Amino acid sequence: MRNYPEQKVIQAFQLYTVLASHGVAGEQAVQLYKSDDDIRGLLDIFSREVDCVIILTSEQMFLVPRTKLSPFHVSNDWIKRHYLRSGATNGDLYLLYFTVLVLFGSFYDTYQSQEPTRQFLGMDEWVHLVQERIDQLKQHDPDELKQLEQEFSYNWRLIIEKWDAMDDIKETAKKQSGNTISRLSFIDTTRRFLIDQDLIVDIGNHEVALTEKAKTIVQRFFMEVEYNRGIFEFIYGFEREKDDASDQ
Amino acid sequence: MDKLELAGVTDGYHERIRRLALFDPLFDLERKRSTDLNGQPIDMKGLGLLALLFFFEQKLMRQYKTGVKQLASFLKKLTENVYVLDDEMYEDLTRTIIQTFRPTTGKKRSYSFYDWEKREESAIEYSLLKANDFDVKTNTQYYTLDEDGLELVFATKEFYSEFQLSINQLMLRKQLEKGEFAAALKQINEMRIDVETLEERMTRLKHEIQRSIISEETFERYKQLLDDIYSRLSREDEEFKELREFVNETRERLYARDVHQKEAKTYELVLKIARELESVHYAHSALLDKALSLKNTTLVTAQESLYYTGLHSFNFDQDIVSYIVSTPLPLEAMKGLLHPFLKVEENQFWSPLAIFAEQNITEEREEKVGLRFIEADDAVCDDPYRTWLMAKYKELMQLFLEAYQLGRAQTLSAFFSYLDDIGQSRLYEQRYFYDFWLIMHQHSPVQHGDMKGEEGNTLLGDALALLGGNVLDVQEGDRIIRKFERFSIQDMMITVREQ
Predict the structure, then answer these.
(1) Distance from first CA to last CA of chain A, Å, rounded?
(2) Which chain B residues touch A212 with a CB distance below 8 Å?
(3) Closest partner residue to B211 among A140, A148, A220, by Cβ?
(4) Distance between alpha carbon B385 and the CA centroid of its chain, in Å?
(5) Residue B483: its H or E element
(6) In chain A, which residue's Cα lies nearest the Cα of B299?
């Protein structure tokens, strides 16, 4: 490993702390990263140590956690504590993940273009899209799902049941947000989580749109060949494990 | 015409179709058969176009809070004498129009066709109307014309938005020459919209360049595009400078002919034109700067990203969501896939050393209660405590004036002993007694009616009325009086003098 001057190490660390707490740094940081080899090297090392990569645009710099299960990334508990109601279970959490995936899928659902295909997503439409995916899940053989559950953490039935148990809206509640238990209020929880993470913005009339940050991450991370390969290795990796299990 | 240039004929087919496609929503509207209360068919296409023009006009007037309500009342005003409709129907009608221009699913409107130039299936996405702002309280969304919407409005006026600014500049010059100043002002407002649209387009372009992973080919395209924009902007800038010159000349000419006295209104209009033109020009030159920096910085970054290799076919929905659902993958896979979007976990730790840090010892209350004297609040006029307090203050003042007449209240300590003598010692065992003197001291010299709007007016009003035309003067003494164990107060010299 190279020897870095102490001053550079400090400077790089300062920059890293900004990235670690906000996930993003401004134009000056970009300039520094580009012009100073030492800083760039150090930052790359730092971020690799916490399983992240650095993604640049000409004005912003993002610290993006890599696609893998890493102890450095946000833990289930952390999300539960900060965004879900008290007493939330893993089922709630995974349903949250699921709805988020559906959201991004709805914006990027074409091979033709790298740009999002929609400008905004309404909450009703979102619930509807989640329902579609849940219906697809239901088409798996229940026995097979049950079997998978025993082998691994394939607890999809938990999610299906969680979703099915909720009404579309709680008619007795005045506001469809917060603690009432309904699909719309669950989606509202997800919405607040994503807004807090600076991934979507509320544009009123129960509609949300993607932020520049979200678009950058999809286009510069998910669509970048090297990282994209990592993503596919990650998801196909699970399949191999399944094959192995069935071979035995 | 023996040899028909095939390539020449189909050149720019995509763009041409695009312009045609923009009219699609209007025809969609035409197919909606709505009737009014008398069964008379409503001209939906016409109303659709009117709606676009309405949004255009709102944009001209820089009125950004335009929602369903505003459009409905506009349509109502316009068609009241033609159709018989109630308010609710107008609102429905308006919603139909807005939803046709801006589908509620969030998907952009798209138009698929066969591209005869490239000989392949192709699709165009466009957006006429976009959400502009919203009001949380009333849950109202406001809309404004999107780029394609403007294009459509312009297309109905026979020229294209790209040259809009130049055309506006030309028109402005002609109007100034002819002396049509009111029209010229409107022209300037249109130019302002052009500049705003350009600005929006450049911001979008910038984001697009930053996000996209660029191939050599697209890089060349962006470069060409930015060069074009830059040269067009500088041409327009030249024209602006000339226009400014021209307006100034016009102004001076009018001034020389004493128009500013004979036709003050016209002259004012010209002054306004000069001012508005200046501000549009300013906004435009900011764009020129922006274009230059876009060329220099953004393109450079984009060029760097040529080292990366981007995927042209990635479909989040298919490749990731569908895959997870159909396989299915373990739940954890979702977590891993979403991590890139999230921040790194941030935990706050509590250090035991924190107890040595500066502590916040004030109680947590809804409102901050500072150190201050009792203040009156108009909102609580009928508070029984207040009424009681007012009576007590009045009683105190009365006792004091009696004592003063007897020469037993030149100082506060003398007043204390006077109270002892007349058997009213319980008075100074009360908190309000001390408050009274503190307020008096604070406002000294006091007279009836000079504390208007403050506590004196209401809380002390009755007490001060007893003073009549006299002035009460209170100066602090040097002793501290401790007659009652719970309270102490500094001695005061009190004089009542005539005004």
Answers:
(1) 44
(2) 207, 211
(3) A220
(4) 44
(5) strand B470-484
(6) A58
**Residue B363 CB burial class (10 angstroms; 0-12, 13-18, ≥19):** exposed
Place of tokens 């678009």: A215
CB A62 within 8 A of CB A53: no
Write down the residue that tokens 């009325």 correspond to: B465
Q: Which two tokens stand for residue B438?
A: 């503190």
Distance, C-alpha B223 to centroid of its chain: 35
- Beta-carbon neighbour count of residue A33 at 10 Å? 19
Q: What pLDDT band is residue B488 in, cutting at 50, 70 and 90?
A: confident
Amino acid sitting at position A144: E
> Measuring CA to CA, how many Å separate A39 from each of A4, A43, A66, B107, B184?
9, 6, 21, 43, 56
pTM above 0.80, yes or no: no
Residue B179 to residue B256: CA distance in whole angstroms:
16
pLDDT for B46 beyond 70: yes
Angstrom distance (rounded) from CA B57 to CA A172: 43
**Chain A residues with beta carbon closer than 8 angstroms to that of B106:** 106, 118-122, 125, 207
Tokens of B485: 């164990």
**Chain A from 183 to 222: CB within 8 A of any B CB:** 197, 199, 202-207, 212, 214-222
Question: A148: burial class by Cβ within 10 Å (0-12, 13-18, 19+)?
Answer: buried
Look up tokens 């763009």; give the residue.
B15
Q: Based on the number of CB atoms within 10 Å of its own CB, is B44 exposed (0-12), middle (13-18) or buried (19 or more)?
A: buried
How many C-beta atoms lie closer than 10 Å to residue B479's C-beta?
13
Contact (Cβ atoms closer than 8 angstroms) between residue B488 and residue B422:
no
Burial of B440 by CB count in 10 Å (0-12 exposed, 13-18 middle, 19+ buried)?
Answer: buried
What does the CA dihedral B422, B425, B430, B433 come to, rounded to 10 degrees? 50
- Do B43 and B26 meet the contact criterion of CB atoms below 8 Å apart? no
For residue A219, give the nearest of A72, A62, A97 by alpha carbon.
A62
Phi and psi at A71, nearest 5°, equal -65, -15
Is the CB of residue B194 less than 8 Å from the CB of residue B279?
no
Q: Are A96 and A84 in contact (CB under 8 A)?
A: yes
Q: Which of B208, B312, B323 faces A235 most closely, judged by CB atoms?
A: B323
ipTM of the complex, rounded to two decimals: 0.76
DSSP SS3 for B275: helix
d(CA A120, CA A201): 10
Helix ranges (DSSP H) in B305-351:
323-326, 331-338
Nearest to A105 among B139, B213, B317 (CB): B317
Higher per-residue confidence, A109 vs B3: A109
- For chain B positions 340-369, those within 8 Å of chain A (CB to CB) are 340-347
A152 shares contact with chain B (CB less than 8 Å): yes
Report which DSSP code applies to B23: T
3-state secondary structure of A110: coil
Question: Cβ of A197 and B342 within 8 Å?
Answer: yes
> In angstroms, what separates the C-alpha of B54 from chain A's closest C-alpha?
21
What are the tens digits of pLDDT across the range A26-80?
888 888 888 888 898 899 998 888 888 888 877 788 888 888 777 777 788 888 8
Q: CA A44, CA A47: separation in Å to the nearest integer?
A: 5
Spatial contact of B433 and B424, defined as CB atoms under 8 Å apart: no
Alpha carbon distances (Å) from B138 to B134, B326, B346: 9, 42, 36
Identify the residue among A31, A35, A58, A131 best suited for mutation to test binding to B, counting B beta carbons within 10 A and taking the highest. Answer: A58
Instruction: Report the length, in residues, of chain A.
Output: 248
Task: Kindly state the helix (H) or strand (E) to which residue B297 belongs, with its residue range.
Answer: none
Measured distance CA(B195)–CA(B278) in Å, rounded: 13
Cα–Cα distance measured from residue B259 to residue B370, given in angstroms and rounded to the nearest whole number? 63
Choose among A67, A102, A140: nearest Cβ to B328. A140
User: Quick one: tokens of A22?
Assistant: 């906000």
